[in-house]
TrEMBL record, chain A:
This is Cytochrome c oxidase subunit II. Its main location: membrane. It holds the Pfam family COX2. The chain crosses the membrane at residues 30-50, 70-92. It is found in: Membrane.
From TrEMBL, chain B:
Pfam families: COX1. The chain crosses the membrane at residues 61-79, 99-124, 144-166, 186-207, 227-250, 270-295, 307-329, 341-366, 378-405, 417-440, 452-474, 494-516, 594-616, 622-641, 678-701, 713-736, 748-769, 781-802. InterPro entries: Cyt_c_oxase-like_su1_dom, Cyt_c_oxase-like_su1_sf, Cyt_C_Oxase_1, Cyt_c_Oxase_su1_BS. Residues 45-554 form the Cytochrome oxidase subunit I profile domain. SUPFAM superfamilies: Cytochrome c oxidase subunit I-like. Keywords: Cell membrane, Copper, Electron transport, Heme, Iron, Membrane, Metal-binding, Respiratory chain, Transmembrane, Transmembrane helix, Transport. It comes from Paracoccus rhizosphaerae. The keyword Acyltransferase does not apply. Its main location: membrane. It comes from the Bacteria. It is found in: Cell membrane. It is a multi-pass membrane protein. Belongs to the heme-copper respiratory oxidase family. This is Cbb3-type cytochrome c oxidase subunit I.
Length: 222, 849
């Protein structure tokens, strides 16, 4: 009963908890798993603390107690939990990184305080747009991210994680939108006065349908 | 006041057969007068400028830190006011950027670090059984550097030119191109000036723990706080140099256009990130460890038992020290580093949770096995557990690379870091203050206020930051001033802002409570917590000299309060009118000699002023005047050496019946020499960071290979090799100056060494003249930096050689007296070693090019 308003509270155009692509879905799943695990561990520790506060033991610490608390809980328990989690985390990460295959490439170029994109247009010709990135839905794509001035970061929360745009470097980031639609993106790394407004949109079009007209984003968006 | 059983911290019997008998008891009051006469501060305002006493300086550090905490807190409230609604019009964006940058920088550099330094300075000698820190003047110097630097940083906000690039100051946003004003210079110069105090404290804490403990207190049985602070100090020694180097390089880039971080000329902005986080991550543990030390001290006492797993906790501290240097990259998971490398740092970041978990469970186990008393510090300790456990768990989440890609740079991270820092530092520090206040001011607190403050802080904190995790996951970035299109953030932010105000009220009440206790509390009786540690083996409030006689094997714990006050311990009173404390062997704690410490002097404040004048002229852009500040500093520093030697031999001093020890002028392993070695560890780290920069830019930065060297490199090799040969000759001369100090003509060697060093320094000048234009390419800039490093050390070596020479001429060198010669030897060797490495690096660059 409580879950409905709670889940509604997780929605939003920038919410990582309403994922719309495989990377974001996996990360959201990882988050929920970690949340449950962390919640249980917090409850456990708080229960131990509660008991410890209430107990009226008079004994001095004994070897058995040391073994139980230090080696049992401190080392054994934490190592076990962390090993499982780490394996899971690395496995997920490995599956979502960009690799050298023939995934289509688009370019995202950041500058104070706007985004410029280059993507394949009609007939495969590259088309340059300001503030809107057009990608086919249902297919993975790589974004080559560069910057012409300071550090920015390319982030479309509902599609997946972020990747920095660093002057002099070119980072490649793999994403995919599961269904056609418009997804909001933004600059995640603080980049000066216009940082709050350095947004963009990702338009995922139906690859079976006609190509969109690659119009730029609404005017006046900084 | 509940009466619990008496506790003994040390499980094993103390070796009382060390051959140290008790001194005959004397009347406590005359003894107190004799000591206080020597140790107390000057009265009135002169005391402010001349005190070097660790008690005074420590309290001053803590009080100043809380003033900056209040300022940082006001800034936090302004941030919360701005974010409470989506179109916040409270601050304009420029001011908002300055305010969040200043909030982070103040809390880190002007609150957390100085507070832990202050606690360490104030507490360490007391808990270890000494009369002062190893270098009282250095404590005072650190304080004034902190005070002056902090004032400049805060004033910049009033003039609207405060740093505005975020507290981690990422380039190129903070480079001259994108921050043309002095905003970034304020941060770089101000923070570096303040960090002199951190380096001073780190050296002092290390040496004090290793060498100023109670007689026959082995390292393996010192109070846990000692281990925690030793870990902290070592981390500061190795953690701060990368930041200091990074700040120097960035300031040089901004001031003189040397392109260390400029991609167009072979630099890389990632170099700044590596240097910053090489400091920045250990920093978190630098802040956490002293707080954890306080917990390990207070928890067993308020649980009427002993700590569970002393050895395991020491191992956990050592583990944290090492691990924390292997995970800085987890702040850089989104900069495009290959995933396999990220996995390594991810594993290290997760692994660091293990020693933390060991400590958490050891503390809970201690409470479990004991009988917990619900006193005010315990309330804050419960607050610590409830907060820090969650902060640690979100930390593990952020260590998972894929999750980090989403959560990085959002309010989730903001929530996480506040859980860790407030949970892991502020709550334990509040517990520590509540716990040690009776020793600080001799008074007991006013009932009720402390509890009310705790609940306000606790509820306010969780109300502010718990839902901020969700705010971040919903996609709210850090450091945005408005969010007009995101109505879904609004109620979350409004709640955070509301509770933020409650939290602020709680801290205000806490401050009020402390002031009330200081002024109106009733007199506390001795050892109010019935603690075993030595800091309670003294009257309240703690006297200027701490112990009328120093604790030895017969006075192992707080139970020895009266015998110590009666002078039955070691080195009773101040019969020679000097500030004396005992120096021991680092491992065993066997007494070695007596250090005569500095007394009230205005030298530290004058030195801080001289150093400050250099920073001020750099900040004002008067680069051609800045060397005057260096000259002024050298002139003042010269005078520090004056009391460090003596021109006659002193007889042995009877510390206790059966134990007579020499004064520090007549031994080689002085505190000064140990401190020089510790300083060189930090110095070597700085040099290592510089070499890391050379390697990193060569391999990673675009814009390499560099343009061909314009110098006739092989021609330059000649003066370089000649300089190295002269430095080596200086090392030999310094060695001979020591071994032949008693023979006729011994003075010749100091003179010869001085000449060699000065000549070598002059040759470095020739090299500088032949250098390629350092603004051309990062390689040339780095060569300039490497040469600059050698020049700075050349100046120090020449100063020490000169000091040694003056010592020799003034008869301050004799059979047992060595003057400045050992320190000169060390520095000269370091200068030779680093310079030789630099020549090798440049030669390798030329050969491989």
């Amino acid at each position: 009963m409580l879950a409905v308003p709670l889940l509604a509270a997780c929605e939003g155009p920038l919410s990582t908890l309403t994922p719309a692509g495989p990377a974001a879905v996996e990360i959201a799943r990882l988050w929920w798993a970690m949340l449950i695990g962390s919640g249980l561990i917090t409850l456990l520790v708080m229960a131990m603390l509660w008991r410890a506060l209430r107990r009226q033991s008079q004994g001095r610490p004994r070897l058995a107690a040391e073994r139980r608390w230090i080696f049992g809980w401190g080392l054994g328990f934490s190592l076990a939990v962390l090993t499982v989690l780490l394996g899971f985390g690395i496995w997920i990460g490995e599956r979502m990184i960009a690799r050298d295959d023939d995934t289509p490439l688009v370019e995202a170029h950041a500058g104070q305080w706007a985004w410029e994109f280059v993507q394949p247009g009609p007939g495969g010709q590259p088309v340059t747009t300001q503030g809107v990135l057009y990608v086919p839905a249902g297919r993975p794509f790589d974004v080559a991210i560069t910057s012409s001035d300071v550090i920015h970061s390319f982030w479309v929360p509902r599609l997946g994680g972020k990747m920095d745009a660093i002057p002099g470097h070119r980072n490649v980031h793999r994403l995919m939108a599961a269904a056609p639609g418009t997804y909001e993106g933004l600059c995640a790394e603080f980049c000066g006065l216009g940082h709050s407004f350095m947004n963009f949109e990702v338009v995922a079009y139906d690859p079976a349908g006609p190509l969109p007209d690659f119009a730029d984003a609404e005017e006046g968006r900084e | 006041m509940t009466k619990g059983p008496r506790i003994d911290t040390r499980n094993d019997a103390i070796d009382t057969d060390a051959g140290i008998a008790a001194n005959p008891p004397r009347r406590a009051l005359p003894l107190h007068r004799e000591l206080d006469e020597v140790w107390r501060d000057l009265p009135g305002w002169r005391g402010f400028f001349t005190s070097v006493n660790h008690g005074t300086i420590g309290k001053r550090f803590m009080a100043t830190a809380f003033v900056f905490f209040a300022i940082g807190g006001v800034l936090a409230m302004m941030i919360r006011a701005q974010l409470a609604t989506r179109d916040g019009a409270f601050l304009d964006t420029e001011l908002y950027n300055q305010i969040f940058t200043m909030h982070g920088s103040i809390m880190m550099f002007l609150f957390a670090i100085p507070l832990l330094e202050g606690l360490a300075l104030w507490l360490l000698p007391k808990i270890l059984g000494a009369r002062d820190m190893a270098y009282p003047r250095l404590s005072a110097l650190g304080y004034f550097c902190y005070l002056f630097g902090g004032i400049v940083i805060v004033l910049s906000l009033l003039f609207g030119v405060a740093p505005n690039g975020g507290w981690f100051m990422y380039v190129p946003l903070t480079s001259k191109t994108y921050t043309p004003g002095i905003n970034a210079d304020v941060w770089l110069l101000g923070v570096t000036f303040v960090e002199i105090s951190a380096m001073a404290a780190a050296i002092e804490i290390t040496v004090t723990i290793l060498r100023c403990r109670a007689a026959h207190m082995p390292l393996t049985r010192m109070p846990l706080m000692g281990w925690y602070l030793l870990g902290t100090a070592v981390m500061m020694l190795v953690g701060f140099p990368p930041l200091i180097l990074g700040s120097i390089l960035l300031e040089v880039e901004r001031a003189f256009d040397w392109p260390f971080f400029d991609v167009a000329r072979g630099g890389s902005p990632l170099l700044w990130q590596h240097l910053f986080w090489l400091f920045g991550h250990p920093e978190v543990y630098i802040i956490f460890l002293p707080a954890a030390g306080a917990l390990s001290t207070i928890i067993p006492i308020l649980s009427r038992t002993t700590i569970l797993g002393y050895g395991a906790l020491v191992a956990a501290v050592i583990g944290l020290v090492f691990l924390s240097f292997g995970l800085w990259v987890h702040h850089m998971f989104t900069v495009g580093i290959p995933h396999m490398a990220l996995s390594f740092f991810s594993a290290a970041s997760a692994l660091v949770a293990v020693p933390t978990a060991v400590q958490i469970f050891a503390w809970i186990g201690t409470m479990w096995e004991g009988r917990v008393q619900f006193r005010l510090p315990m309330l804050y300790i419960i607050g610590f557990f409830a907060t820090f456990v969650m902060g640690g768990l979100t930390g593990v989440m952020l260590a998972m690379v894929p999750f980090n890609w989403q959560a990085h740079d959002t309010h989730f991270v903001v929530a996480h870091l506040h859980y860790v820092l407030v949970g892991g530092f502020v709550f334990p520090m509040l517990a520590a203050i509540a716990y040690w206040m009776p020793l600080i001011c001799g008074r007991w607190r006013v009932r009720g206020l402390g509890e009310a403050a705790f609940w306000l802080i606790f509820i306010g904190f969780h109300g502010t930051f718990f839902i901020m995790h969700l705010t971040g996951l919903l996609g709210m970035r850090r450091r945005i001033a408005v969010y007009p299109e995101n109505a879904e953030f609004e109620w979350l932010n409004l709640v955070s802002s509301g509770f933020g105000m409650i939290q602020a009220a709680g801290f205000a009440l806490f401050a009020f409570d402390v002031i009330m206790q200081w002024m109106f509390g009733r007199r506390s009786w001795r050892n109010p917590w019935q603690a075993p540690t030595l800091e309670w083996a003294m009257p309240l409030p703690a006297p200027s000299y701490n112990f009328a006689s120093l604790p030895g094997p017969r006075q192992p714990d707080a139970g020895a309060l009266l015998p110590l006050a009666r002078g039955e311990g070691l080195l009773a009173g101040a019969p020679r009118g000097w500030r004396e404390t005992l120096v021991v062997e680092p491992g065993s704690g066997r007494p070695q000699h007596i250090a005569v410490l500095a007394t009230n002097t205005a030298l530290p404040v004058a030195t801080a002023g001289a150093i400050g004048s250099f920073f001020a002229m750099m900040l004002a852009g008067l680069y051609w005047l800045a060397p005057l500040g260096i000259v002024a500093t050298l002139v003042v520093v010269w005078r520090w050496g004056a009391i460090m030697g003596t021109d006659r031999d002193h007889p042995l001093v009877e510390v206790a019946p059966g134990l007579s020890l020499p004064l520090h002028w007549q031994v080689r392993q002085t505190l000064g020499l140990t401190g020089t070695m510790v300083l060189l560890v930090a110095d070597a780290t700085l040099y290592g960071s510089l070499l890391f920069g050379v390697g990193f830019l060569t391999v990673v930065a675009p814009g390499w290979p560099a343009p061909e060297s314009g110098i006739g490199t092989w021609w330059m090799l000649l003066p370089a090799l000649a300089a190295l040969a002269l430095m080596a000759a200086g090392v030999v001369a310094a060695r001979l100056a020591e071994t032949r100090r008693t023979r006729a003509g011994g003075r010749l060697w100091t003179r010869l060494g001085l000449a060699c060093s000065a000549l070598a320094l002059a040759l470095l000048g020739v090299l500088g003249w032949g250098l390629d234009d350092p603004t051309r390419h990062a390689r040339d800039a780095l060569r300039g930096a490497v040469l600059g490093f050698a020049v700075v050390h050349g100046v120090i070596a020449v100063m020490l050689a000169l000091r040694a020479d003056v010592d020799a001429r003034q008869g301050r060198i004799g059979a047992d007296r060595r003057g400045a010669v050992p320190a000169w030897q060390l520095l000269q060797t370091f200068w030779l070693g680093t310079s030789a490495a630099s020549v090798a690096v440049v030669a390798a660059q030329e050969v491989l090019a």
